[in-house]
Each structure stands twice: as C-alpha cells, then as structure tokens.
TonB-dependent receptor (Gilvimarinus gilvus), 609 residues
Amino acid sequence: MKQTILAVAVSALSTAVFAQSNNTENTKALLPTLETMVVVSSRQQQPLREVATSIAVLDEAQIKARGFTALADVLRSMPSVSVTNTGGMGKPTSIRVRGESGYRTMVRVDGVDVTDPTGTQAGAQLQHIMSADVSRVELLRGPQGLMYGADSGGVLNISTTTASDETQVKLAAEGGSYDSQRYNASVGGANETLDYFVGASYAETEGFNASLADAALRDDDGYENTTLHGRVGWNVSGALRLEAVLRDTDASNEFDRCSWPYQDDCIGDFEQTNTRVSAKYHTERLNNELAYSNTDVARQNIAAGAVSYDTEGEIQKLEWLGRAKLSDTHTFAYGLEQRADKVLELSRDQWAAYAEYQGHYGHGLYVTAGVRRDDSDDFGDYNTFRMSGAYVLDLNAGSLKVKSSYGTGFRAPSLFEIDYNRQQNNPELAPLTPEESEGWDAGIEYFGNSGLHLELVYFDQGIDREIDWDGGYVQSAGESTSEGFEFIADFPMADWLVINANYSYTDAKTAEGSVRARQPENMANVGFTFVPAGALQASVNVRTADGTQDRYGDPIASYQVLDASVRYTLSSAVSFYVRGENLTDEEYVEVPNYRTAGASGYAGLDVTF
C-alpha cells in the first residue's frame, strides 16, 4: 500500500512536468516567482531575482493548507529539512538543514532571536512554536547567515500576521485525536498612522506514551501551550516608524526518561518571553534601524513530584541595521550588534560588525560580497565572509537563473558546554574552542510564465573542530562534512491543481567518516493542492525518508507518511476543515526508542469578522 501511494505520487509528478497549464488567482499564491519578495538573505526586502543564496518560502496560504498545530510539522515539507521528534507534540524537536544539527540553524520570530541560552547547545526550542498566527516562513539554507552571525545550518525567519487596513477579528477552534484541542483568537487593524495585532492561542493534547522504555507506568504524555503575541507600529512620519513586539509562550510537557535513575513520571515547564522595540528611518537612498530585543527563558523539570532541574537565562541584543543605496545599481548594507548571554551565574558578551556590497551589473547580473567580525569576550575575534552571484536570463517562455554562493560561519561553545566540562575537573577534557564552518552551493532555476518553477542546487559544506559528547564535550580533530543536492519543482497541472515537490540527497559524515545520526540520506515530498472551486480546497502530501542511521550506526527503517486536509468556505466569514495525519497508520521511527503518532484526524472551524 505504502509503495503504491508513492508510486502514484511520483507518476503524477512526472506527467505534470510536461503538462501545459495556465495559472489562476486560485493557485498563484502556491507558486514562487522571480518577483517573490524575501527578507532572510540580507535582512531587507529583495525579489528572488536578485538573490543568489538558497531560500525556501512557505506563505500563509501554504501554511494554512497544511493545517498542522505545531510549526515543526509544517516545516517537514521544505527542501533539505528533516525533523525529529521524541514522542508527539511538545516533545523535544530538532530541525536539521542540509544534515546539520538543529541548534546550528538560527530561528527568529518577528526579528527576535528565540534561541534558548539555557539549552545544552543553545538552540531554539522549536517544539514550543505553534503555527497559529504565523503568516510566512523563510529558510536560508547553509552557512550564509553573514548578517546574523548564524552557523552552518542557516536561518529560519518566521513572521506573524500583520494587520489589515480594516479592524479584523479572527476566532478558531479545533478538536481531534489524542483528545487534542486548539483555540485561537486575534484582533488587528491599521490606518495611515497606527497599526496593531494581538493574538492568543491555546493548544492541548493528552498525547500517547512517548517512550518504548516506559514499560511500567505506560501513561499518556500530554502537552499544553499558551502563546500570546502582540505587535504595534506607529508611523510618526513618512520616514520614521516605531514598532514594538511582545511574545510570551507558557508550556507544560509530560514526558518519559528523566532524572537518574530514569523515571517516567516527568513534567517539563517552559516559559519564554520575547520583546523587541525598534525605530526605523527610511528615505529614498538611506535606511537605518535601531532595535533592542530580549529573550528570557525559564525551565523547570519535575520528576515524580520533586524538582530535578531548574534554570533560567536571557539574551539581550542591541542592533543597528543600515542600508545605503549609492545608486540604482550599487547598494551598501551594514550593521553593528552587541549581544549579552546569561544563564544563572554564567555570562558572555559579544560584539559584531558587518558590511556587504550589493551590485547589479548589466541586464541580469547580481553580486554580493560581505564580511563580518565578531569579538567574544571568551574567545576573541573571528572573521566570517559571504560572496554570491546570480545571473538571470529572460526567455520567451520564462526566465533562467544561475546562482552560486560561498559563506563561512562559527559557533562558540555554549555556556552549558563550557560549564559542564569545567565542573568535571577532568584533565582529558581539553578547553573548548569555537567551531568554524564553511560551505558553498551552486544551482540553476527556471521560472516559467505558466507558473512552472524548477530548481536544482548542489551544496558542499564542512565544520572544523565539531563539538560532540563523549563522557564530556570534546572536539573532533578533523572536519565533519555534508554534501548533496536538492531538486525542487512547483507547477500548476491545471488551473485547479498545483503540485509542490522536492527531493534532497544528503551525504553527511562525521570527522571520523561515519554517517551523522538521524539524518536521512534521501528525503522527498510530493504535495497536491486542489482548488476545484473558490469555496473548496484540498491538500495531500506524501513525505518519505530513507538511509538514516542512529547514533551507534544502526539503520533506521525508511518510511512514507501521507497527510491530507480539506477546507470548505461556508461564507466570507466562516470556513470549516478536516485534516488527517499519517492516514496509512505508518509505524515509523524518527528517534530510536520513541513512538510517533499513528493515524489521526482533526476538525476545526474558523470565523472572521
């Protein structure tokens, strides 16, 4: 049955590549174009025509069509992205981009770095980000995050809903398998001077028994999440804008295998508060933004009723971002950043400055060259670079784009990694130094006038002195590598049917030459979106992974998962939907010894007025 599902999907994909079709308003939002605007590459609005880095985008229509409660489940359909989860919604979740560990990808929500400084490797707690009120996701793949100080995985830039010109109230409710329920309410509005958006969401599930090792208690491991989000903007003048963002997430997670000796009656409480205030001054030739942001995290684990782990930390950033348009074809981007990390009594300060030249030559050549310098009070100075080039050739039937980029990055050991080794007082644990990464990619894209989009990208990247666990935190003597290619295809098969597909091959190896754990060698998504009438929309997606190994080199079985959703708009104010996940009830493993969800169904209602 599973092989049949994939065979049918691939057959339809092959047929559709040669089909001629016309794009319509119903399907246009599901297809990228050369004029699709992105921010993540250089922290400024740019059309894909001018961008040479590798970027994938999910907009509001695509996020809504997938319908998942957790944003991590939405991300599974993006190219070169693998997601691992240890037992259902709210359980530890990691996103790997081009084979790199999850903490190597910087995650930002409305301009705020949501890294958890208290984490072992200080990455974002992706499992606590719900999809409610998320309007857009942009993923920059590879060590190209010059303006962010990002590591080799890249940058995931998440934007929430912006206010419309008229006051709008939205209400939503959903219920389904595992006694799950979700509620969302928001209100927003705007005029020429002020705009605002306030949203509140609540998600809860009884879950299932997460760990195979829980053979005694065998209880369901539930989760609940309350997220509040607000943004207000004031256009003081035609050139000056002030803006403030506040986001608070309060979550509680039941899980297995905590404390020592292991217990399965575990509760993890998590609270993260993100704030950002900014002032933007914009003229025809000059843009400047001064921003202050704060991420505050508190975490506590309770084992059998007793506190087993308790920590808190914060990240403060003061940023100055600028862009000077020297002429119609030459632009200079620049910035300064001061960052302070703190976890309990541990702290670190870091300064950074960057500059990038962006040029447009002739009819279709776009180039960039930039440098960044970071000065850490723990590890001194580090320089990173990025260069990129794209050439666009406009043809009668569409446009052909050839692109390539090269970038470097570094990751300082986390405060936890340093402190753990220090406390062991073990002379065999050498002092940790920053990891350094570099990588390049090259690709070709075709954007057809009919809506057809094809992209093929080759990538090759590596990390020197990668930090790993071996009775303490140790660094490899060589270079861990990741190389492969990505194929992406988006096209309208008819004016009522769009296909979005991608395939990624990733050869990720440690410095010792073994396969990196939990990274599939082959990943693919084939998605069909049907819009037979303005009131009805259906979405079907098949994802597959193959060639995965666990931490000890043992194979993890390949799998194929089928998800589908149907939405019907009853009126301009009310829509109803149903969603099925893992419809073939595939028994598959992402993390050894942890269960994944079986076949499940959900139904919900959206009201807008």
Notes: Residues 1-23 have pLDDT under 50 and may be disordered. The first strand starts at residue 37 and ends at 38. The two ends are 44 Å apart (CA to CA). The domain at 2-608 is CATH 2.40.170.20 (Maltoporin; Chain A).
